[in-house]
Amino acid sequence: MQPALVAKYGEARLPRYTSYPTAPRFSPAIDADTYGGWLAATPPEKPASLYLHIPFCRSMCWYCGCHTTITQRDQPIFDYLDMLREEVHLVSAKTRAPLSINHVHFGGGTPTIMQPKEFLALITLLREHFEFANTAEIAVEIDPRTLEPEMATALGEAGVCRASLGVQSFDPVVQKAINRIQSEEQTMDAVTRLRKAGVDSINFDLIYGLPHQTVESCIATAEAAIRMGPERFAVFGYAHVPSFKKHQKLIDEKALADAEGRVAQAEAIAATLVAAGYRRVGLDHFARPDDGLAIAQARGQLHRNFQGYTTDACETLIGLGASAIGRTRDGYVQNEVPPGVYAQRIASGRLATVKGYRLTPEDRLRASIIERLMCDFGVDVPALAAAHGFDPQMLLRGNAKLAMLESDGILENADGVIRLREGGRFLIRAAAAAFDAYIEQSGRTHSKAA
């Protein structure tokens, strides 16, 4: 870590670049009719992915940046699932033939908040309306505090092969400060249940930069998590945006680390995981050497989407549920965010699309450059520009941000072949932003660069 670079770049708010252009560029000019046309034009023979958003939790974690609703009753969840099933019918009716599915991801909220029989019925419905590949990967995000044995069994029966467990921190002081009390025993019990059910790949989510977190507590959490044997880790920096997420006002800002402290915490976690045999994958993921994520990176086949780093290379992503974002070869779409408004749209027999973005040829070029930077810490700009039919100098000549990063020793630029230096990799998002044509218009809803 270089303190001077942290001081210069660390406080900037930059996208995580899980898409390009990013969500602030989405416009209501892209509506349900637009999306319907894009679905009709989607080649059914090309593999696609599904994302299903379940926006409900039993309690609010104060750090949360997701779209979710707190409910202690099951009826709102049942009502929502009725609309979600109807959306499956509406979307599948727009395509020329059933789409071939390679990946399915359930996100939240807490997807496992639904009853086991409801989950199994939803999987059955998806299989009826889409053509699942024999090797289709089904992944589910899980809150270990609420995972019941019956639900773990249902996940196995449904063919779920990957589970992502929220851990964040095992430090009781930090847990109290973020309103998420979760013991190591609860987490290990969830892992044991999932393994027994046949879910053979486990991911843990950890967060740094939380209130009262220290380097020592980050290391202790990582060491405790390693002992539970997950195949992967995702390590995210807490994004404090109380103007955007009102519940974050309950977090004591004075207890948050500065940019230098955040970098120190992130690197301490990384060093602990690497020392335990995990390979660093991109900016913030870690995987065992024999895991598909690590193998994809080694082969230059790593990708990045709304779930972070992934082996999913599908061009089409069908987003289902309130606030869900989807993608076709033509552009991005997002559903209505409030579950009630989403339900009204679906009940009226219309797709729930509220906004989106139509990709231009230049957007596709910039997206490919940014993805390679985020995945490989380097990119051959002239080669990609040629593949997309552009002059690379359009991106390189007069690029002041790129020149500054090179001058500060963060990256090397050899005639447009760019490579992040080892000590500058924590600023990869700053390098990606040098190719973002819209960065100045995206506001302060993003997380800090470090």
TrEMBL record:
Pathway: Porphyrin-containing compound metabolism; protoporphyrin-IX biosynthesis; protoporphyrinogen-IX from coproporphyrinogen-III (AdoMet route): step 1/1
Domain Radical SAM core residues, every copy: 42-279
Binding site for [4Fe-4S] cluster: C57, C61, C64
Compartment(s) where it occurs, according to its Swiss-Prot or TrEMBL record: Cytoplasm
Residues at which S-adenosyl-L-methionine 1 binds: Y51, G108, E141, I325
Cofactor: [4Fe-4S] cluster
EC number: 1.3.98.3
Coiled-coil segments: none
Entry binding sites for S-adenosyl-L-methionine 2: Y63, C64, G65, G109, T110, Q168, R180, D205, A239
Catalytic activity: coproporphyrinogen III + 2 S-adenosyl-L-methionine = protoporphyrinogen IX + 2 5'-deoxyadenosine + 2 L-methionine + 2 CO2
Biological processes, Gene Ontology terms: protoporphyrinogen IX biosynthetic process
Primary location recorded for the protein, binned into one broad class: cytoplasm
Keywords of this entry: 4Fe-4S, Cytoplasm, Iron, Iron-sulfur, Metal-binding, Oxidoreductase, Porphyrin biosynthesis, S-adenosyl-L-methionine
One family name in Pfam for this protein: Radical_SAM
Function (record text): Involved in the heme biosynthesis. Catalyzes the anaerobic oxidative decarboxylation of propionate groups of rings A and B of coproporphyrinogen III to yield the vinyl groups in protoporphyrinogen IX.
Subunit description: Monomer.
Name used for this protein in its record: Coproporphyrinogen-III oxidase
Source species taxonomy: Bacteria, Pseudomonadati, Pseudomonadota, Alphaproteobacteria, Hyphomicrobiales
